[in-house]
Amino acid sequence: VKYLPNVRLPPNVVAVPDLSDAAAGATLLIFVLPHQFLSRLCPQILRAVAPGCRAISLIKGVEFESAEPRLISRLISRLLGGMDVSVLMGANVANEVARDEFCEATVGCSSAESGALWRLVFHRPSLNVTVVRDVAGVELCGALKNVVALGAGFCDGVGYGANTKAAIVRIGVREMQAFCALFFEGVEKDTFFESCGIADLVTTCYGGRNRKCAEAFARRGPGATWEAIEVELLNGQRLQGTLTCQDVHACLLAKGAETQARFPLLEAVYAISFEGRDASTIVKLVR
Amino acid sequence: VKYLPNVRLPPNVVAVPDLSDAAAGATLLIFVLPHQFLSRLCPQILRAVAPGCRAISLIKGVEFESAEPRLISRLISRLLGGMDVSVLMGANVANEVARDEFCEATVGCSSAESGALWRLVFHRPSLNVTVVRDVAGVELCGALKNVVALGAGFCDGVGYGANTKAAIVRIGVREMQAFCALFFEGVEKDTFFESCGIADLVTTCYGGRNRKCAEAFARRGPGATWEAIEVELLNGQRLQGTLTCQDVHACLLAKGAETQARFPLLEAVYAISFEGRDASTIVKLVR
Question: Which of A170, A195, A286 to probe by mutation at the B interface, max B CB count within 10 Å?
């Protein structure tokens, strides 16, 4: 009623308010909640599920700890006693999926068996599910795209043309790839051709709230603050991209100047967002 | 004056009306003209140039012959006695480049030496040039993107959402890769992460005349003809995408049904454009 008005859910979706009841004897768990609740809820879930239970996380976001990205899927796995945890990401916002419009999703799985199983759960003619053996790549795409979208928004705010913006998006994919490879083993370039990669990035850079707020930030020029923009455009909700941008910068800073130099776009987004650099400098990416 | 009003060309660009004079003693040739003129002009050029002369083609398009794509760069090379011919493509429309806005380009070269040389010629802070050793991949991107853009336009015309459109674009990149690999050796997946790939494709699918005309075609529904749309929206100029679409279909048809099945998007664009299939079926891509 609140988030998807006029959408009729199928009868096999049943709301069970008690978590232990909901998870009792479960063989499959699907996580779609703010990750702050995980550490409180997971112990309860673990006590209830069937042996051999598997999980999948649709949670978009990433934790940072000691200047290193930490995957939410690994956090869930740890909290659930080493359970097999896959992830599902991609360009598939709830309202379009609910209208049964054609969308895609990418499952990142740690075993071929889990991948096949989750595809069976989610794939249908209007939701094309591709499976890749790259949890970290799939999961990090969802967080990093928001930082690139800030760059795309700066571009729009300054009034640069379509080719400049396409260049920002493209350089963004490359730096997303490089960032994932810097911190995780087994990240595949091919992952970025999947829905979680270019498709989700393009949607976010051509629509999306991070792009919109960054455009407003650039238009206002010196003195603009994210807080004021969040109050005006998002009713005070916090932007994801600016938070991730700070964490990403902290990670790169900790690796040193040589590493920072390999990420001119991500670093330019940080400098514009938090160090007062002019938004027009988003294109100073080539040395 | 006609195509780039108010743009001042640098003094080292000199117009020489006589082709033999222009090419006399040349060590570098840059081809930017409709390819129909090549067979007439190349013999004249060949007689005039210096030994060891190299060429680069910026000509977007591809010839088809006996249901096989033929690269314009190979045609030029043949007409110039086997000269080393590279290509330059990407999201870099003339008016944005002329305003010195940040853009990118991809050079596809057949030798590392040529690649380094052409980068020296074109690269500057506002034009980021990447070199790849994949002439066919770079060159075919420029033609195939227009077919995908028709699919994106159908999507817009039917009124599908942003995630559906992103899916079409993503599936488009995958089929572009597969099409190139079907007909040429040495096509690299990485090429499609370059400006000639995703950047040019995104620009074309979110702006661009092929997208616009396909949107109109879908809006009009049964009875719409490309000829009428070309008259109304393009002053009678011919669309590139519909021509390429027919050639691509002929290539796939000649390879047989199994091959056709591997290109559901390219084939759906053909069926909607030329076989009266409804534009809404652009999303029937999953079996």
Answer: A170
Instruction: Give the pLDDT confidence of B4-13 residue by residue, as tens digits.
Output: 999 999 999 9
pTM of the model: 0.94
Q: Say how many CA atoms lie within 13 Å of B77 toward its Cβ.
A: 15
Which ipTM value was assigned to this complex?
0.93
pLDDT per residue as tens digits for the range B41-83: 999 999 999 999 999 999 988 889 999 999 999 999 999 999 9
What is the nearest CA distance from A27 to chain B, expressed in angstroms? 28
DSSP B285: -
CB B56 within 8 A of CB B107: yes
Count H helices and E strands in chain B, helices first: 13, 7
CA-CA distance, B217 to B154, in Å (whole number)?
A: 7
pLDDT of residue A180: 97
* CB contact (8 A) between residue B164 and residue A103: yes
Distance from CA of A128 to the nearest CA of B (A): 7
Element (H, E) at A64: strand A63-65
Asked about A212 being catalytic, the answer comes back as: no
Cα distances (angstroms) measured from residue B248 to each of B90, B181, B200: 21, 14, 19
